[in-house]
Amino acid sequence: MTSADTPAILPEVAPALARTAAQYDEVPYQSHAFPLTHPARLAAIATLFGLTPPDVATARILEIGCAAGGNIIPLAAHLPGATCLGIDLSGVQIEQAQRRAQGLGLRNLELRRQSVTEIGAADGPFDYVICHGVYSWVPSGVREAILRVCAEQLSDDGIAIISYNVMPGWHMKRVVRDSMVAHAAHIADPSQKIAQARWFIEFLKDRVPQQTPYGAALRTEAAFLANQRDDYVLHEFLEDENSPCTVTEFVLGAEKLGLGYLGETELHTMIAETYGAEVAGALRQLSDNRLLPLEQYIDILTGRTFRQSILAKAATAARAQRALDPHRLLALHVAGRFTAEADAGQDGARVFRDNAGRTLSTGSTGVGIAMDLMSARYPATVTAAELTAVAGRWSSAPAVQEAAVMDALYRLLNAGMLDFRITPVRIGTAGAERPRATPLARYDASQGAAATTSLRHEPVLIDAASRLLLPLLDGTRDRVALRDALLQALASSGTHLQRDGQAVAGEAERHAAALELIESTLRSLEATALLEAS
C-alpha cells in the first residue's frame, strides 16, 4: 500500500526483500511470544529512568516482522484496550496470523503483509514499537527504515525495542555461518540446504585442528546448532543477509536519525558491578563512566552475541535519569520465585536462590517475609509497596524493615533476579469453584496447538491433558461438570484414563481418576499463568 504519506519499497532493496519473503513462505519461522518485548516491561524500565511512558492498557503498538503473530496476537488478546498492528513480508505467515486472530475475534489487531519501508505518517503514531529478530537479517536500507519508523512514528514518550546480533561476540558464530554458506549457498531447496549445512558442520567439527581457537570456536557452535530447529538454522545462519554490528554502531546509527539509547531489556547487564567489583572498577575507568563506551566494553568483556536495545526519541532519552532511585520501584509490580535455605555462615540469616542459581542473603526478618510472599504469589505479581507494608507490619521498627525490603528489591533488580512490570499480572487459582482459562489458551488448545502464551507473556507448551481440559475452562463448569465433560472428550477421542499403565475400569474409578487429572492439570495451569482471576 502506498500513498502520499506512505513510502514505497525502495527499488534497491526490493529483490532482497522478495527473496527473504520467499524463504519465510517456504520455511516459516516458529512464532511465539518474547517476554522481554512486552510494553509493560519497556514502560517499567522507562519509569525506573524517571520517564513517563504511555499507558500500556490503551497503547498503540506496532510490531515489525510479526511472523505468524506469536508475539503480537497475545498482546492484543491480553490488552483489549490497546490498538495493535503487525506487519511481515511473508504472506504465508500473515495468513496464519490472520486466521488465529479471526478465530479469537480480536478487533484491536490489524495484520498486514507489508515492508517496514512502506510505513509512513498515515500509520502512526505508535506508543510502542517492537522489532525482534529482524534488524540484523535485512539490507542496510531496511535497517535504516526500521530506525526511521521508530524516529518518525513514535509518540513523544514512546518506546521502541530492537534486537540484533552483536559484534565482537558474533564473530565466533560467523565462523560457522561462513562455512555453511560456502558449502550450501548454491542449493535452492531449503530442506536440502539445511541438511547439507548441518552435515558439513558435523563433518568439519571432528576434522579441524583440535588445539586452535578456530577449531574450538567451530566445535562449540556446532554443538549449539545440533540442538536447534531447522527454521532457526535457516533464518539465523543461511539467510542472504546477516549483518551483526557493534552496540556503538547501532546507537550512533539511531542517534543520526533522531533517536536516543535508553538501555537494555535485561537491565542488570548494564550495571558494571554485575561483573564483580574489580572488573567494575576497570570498566568504569576504561569507559570514563560514559554510557555507550561502558556498554561497548561490556560486550568485549562478555562476548555477548545478541542485544535487545530500548530506544526513544532523542529529547525523551535525554531526560533519562541514569542513577536508578530504588524508590521508583514503588511504582512497579514485581515477581520472583525463590528457594529459601539457611545460611551456614551467618546466624539467623537466610539465603534465597532463584532458578538460575543467583542468591540473596539476608538477616532481615522483613526481607524474609517479603521474599516468601513473592514466591507464594508467583506467577502473579505483587507491588513493592505491599511488600514493604507486610514487612513493616511484623516489626516493632517498621521503618527499618521497610528500608531493608527496598534495599533487597534494589539488589534483586541489579542482579537480574527480579521480574518487574508497570502493570500487574493477576492469576486465577486452581481451587476456584468454576475455574476459567484465558480465551487465548482455550482457543489455542481447541485448535490442537502445541503451545500458547501465558498472562506473563511467556510461551507455554500444551500437554495432552491440558489440550482436553483447557477448552472446557470457560468459567461455567464446576468440578462435576468438568469431570463429565472431560470423560466425554476422552471417549470421543478414543482415549482411556490410565493408572500405573493400566486402563481405569469401573464408573466410580473413572470418576475419581478424572477428578485427579483435573486437579493436577489445574495446578499446572495456575503455575504457568494460564488461569484468569475471577
Descriptive account of the structure:
The chain is globular and about 70 Å long. Strand 10 (350-353) and strand 11 (359-362) form a beta hairpin. The strands form five sheets. A seven-stranded mixed β-sheet has the order 3-2-1-4-5-7-6, with helices on both faces. The longest helix is centred in the last third of the chain and has 21 residues, at 507-527. It is of the alpha/beta class and 534 residues long. It has helices at residues 14-26, 39-48, 72-78, 91-104, 140-153, 171-184, 190-205, 213-225, 230-237, 247-256, 277-287, 291-302, 314-318, 365-377, 384-393, 398-415, 439-446, 464-469, 479-493, 507-527; strands at 60-64, 83-88, 109-113, 126-131, 154-165, 259-264, 306-313, 333-335, 339-342, 350-353, 359-362, 382-383, 419-421, 451-453, 459-461, 498-499, 502-503.
What fraction strand?
Answer: 5-15%
Structural class: alpha/beta
Strand order of the largest sheet: 3-2-1-4-5-7-6
Cα distance spanning the termini: 43 Å
The 3D shape can be described as: globular
Number of strands: 17
Sequence stretches where pLDDT stays below 50 over 5 or more residues: none
How many separate helices?
20
Major sheet, described briefly? Answer: 7 strands, mixed
